[in-house]
Amino acid sequence: MSAPTARAAGSPANGSPDPTDATRQQSPAGGNLRAVGQHTVAPERVSGAQSVVRSLEELGVEVVFGIPGGCILPVYDPLLDSQKVRHVLVRHEQGAGHAATGYAQIAGHAGVCMATSGPGATNLVTPLADAQMDSVPVVAITGQVGRSLIGTDAFQEADISGITIPVTKHNFLVSDPADIPRVIAEAFHIAESGRPGAVLVDIPKDVLQAQTTFSWPPQIDLPGYRPVTKPHGKQVREAARLIEAAKAPVLYVGGGVIKANASAELMELAELTGLPVVTTLMARGAFPDSHQQHLGMPGMHGTVAAVAALQRSDLLVTLGARFDDRVTGQLSSFAQNAKVIHADIDPAEIGKNRHADVPIVGDCKAVITDLIETIRNERATTTAAPDLSEWWRYLDGIRRTYPLSYDRPADGSMSPEFVISAIGKAAGPDAVYCAGVGQHQMWAAQFISYEKPRTWLNSGGLGTMGYAVPAAMGAKMASPETEVWAIDGDGCFQMTNQELATCAIEGIPIKVALINNGNLGMVRQWQTLFYDQRYSSTDLATHSRRIPDFVKLAEALGCAAFRVEREEDVDEVIAKARAINDRPVVVDFIVGADAQVWPMVAAGTGNDEIMAARDIRPLFDDDESASDPVDIHEAMGRPDKAFPSGSARKDDK
């Protein structure tokens, strides 16, 4: 395989130009590839460790997140002298991995993390799995015990290559110092091309210490690795035919559209066809929330309109999505009457969970571009645009009847949805929002309006507690002028809040909105609904005993800190937090313990069982459900009286 010549740098989320764009260009596939062949470096004698640093410099790496230790220490010595690569000393390797992920999601190219052998490397397993699940390009470089010690259970030895095989796209164990430039270049190429993912490079200490020859560029040699990026014309034409014939089609958009930088093309396709659009959790921002054709997020906690669109459609135009269980619910009852067009750059995803009537392997930008051209050509010669008015009448009725809403807690405590909505309104669509996993993640996905790609980061596939703070740190380093909020839960926050010390020392002024409900909120919600309110091991004591006191903790970590307990104080404190830009800020929002995320599809049930509020299940097949007015806000408080007969029912469960 020939080496790529350039790659595109992701522009900061606020749209300002990347200062390095002059040396990069977009790959033919629309993805982002590292520049390997920018210029030639004459051979020179260096150590293996120096070769690592020089390779990173030649690849244009600007930031590495990591912690030194015995076996990686040889790299840290030349790293000290580098004028191009900045090292950020994190407080835990998990923080390094998530920071690299957050950086990659904003920058649009691979983030880099580094750790030593044994426990340092194994602490990277979770963030590597997280990045791989969410198709984020990350390169991890780890030290390993010397070659003669491998397999002897030496001090701090762990077979990190073997351990990470299931959770990385690829990994390398370097046995020859002469291979270092080639292997590192290949690692970045694999991480960033095709379907992005996590790649690990493990280098024994004696390899790092040995003398070798460094030259650039290396010859990339990856036989068998040839991602298909250009879609097959026949498949595109068949997809266009199905779109033009459908009566109830929907664009089911996944995170692959953002990875392919194809949001502009998606907008063009949607407006050309008039199709409704749903964006998955990983695709929030790929299509503007404010657009009339956007029905919101589908899935377990998606909007009723988005779920209805999928369930009642006759054609799913699936772009860069993978039919995961959180979207489909019970697979056997998912969109039973729909044909499927499935476009994805990863052929392994097509047909994995749902049969595709028209499979299209290719880069999303290329697929959408070809679809637009084909549909335009067909309409110019043979067909008029299909009439989707009846389909839209149904969907608009559902959208009016079951809007996203929430109820104020009965005990008078602060509503988490109110807090998150206020943050979104204040920071606006140019800010970046990071969340971990749980209730706060779902509320942030629901109640902040996303208008642009790469403004919403979260741990989607793996659901990693502790993701938000370090990911926000990485995001802020990728786009320093952008306002970055970590919206975190009090459980998740206690996993990785030590990285606030990193932010304070390194000058990374992120803002943290701590949605403090005193519990492991999503687990408590399930216990409320499915375990007879038996709250086993979910009380964190952050309400009852204020252990820890998050304001004192944040101040001890070098942050400005505030606590808010009344809704009337929310806007004022958010404004204060936004005005502080010389250090991190933590706002401890004390919210009600019993707030729940709605809508909801219970695990293991079909999407037709979606509950718009507790005990309220819409009946999509009843015409009245799409036309009768319903006050969902009132329904959440008085479900027995708010819904007219036929529009919803009280669920027997």
UniProtKB/TrEMBL annotation:
Residues 436-589 form the Thiamine pyrophosphate enzyme TPP-binding domain. Residues 47-161 form the Thiamine pyrophosphate enzyme N-terminal TPP-binding domain. Pfam families: TPP_enzyme_C (PF02775), TPP_enzyme_M (PF00205), TPP_enzyme_N (PF02776). Residues 630-641 have a biased composition (Basic and acidic residues). Pathway: Amino-acid biosynthesis; L-valine biosynthesis; L-valine from pyruvate: step 1/4; Amino-acid biosynthesis; L-isoleucine biosynthesis; L-isoleucine from 2-oxobutanoate: step 1/4. Residues 236-371 form the Thiamine pyrophosphate enzyme central domain. Keywords: Amino-acid biosynthesis, Branched-chain amino acid biosynthesis, FAD, Flavoprotein, Magnesium, Metal-binding, Thiamine pyrophosphate, Transferase. It catalyses: 2 pyruvate + H(+) = (2S)-2-acetolactate + CO2. InterPro entries: Acetolactate_synth_lsu, AHAS_TPP, DHS-like_NAD/FAD-binding_dom, THDP-binding, Thiamin_PyroP_enz_cen_dom, Thiamin_PyroP_enz_TPP-bd_dom, TPP-bd_CS, TPP_enz. Belongs to the TPP enzyme family. This is Acetolactate synthase. The lineage of its organism: Bacteria, Bacillati, Actinomycetota, Actinomycetes, Mycobacteriales.
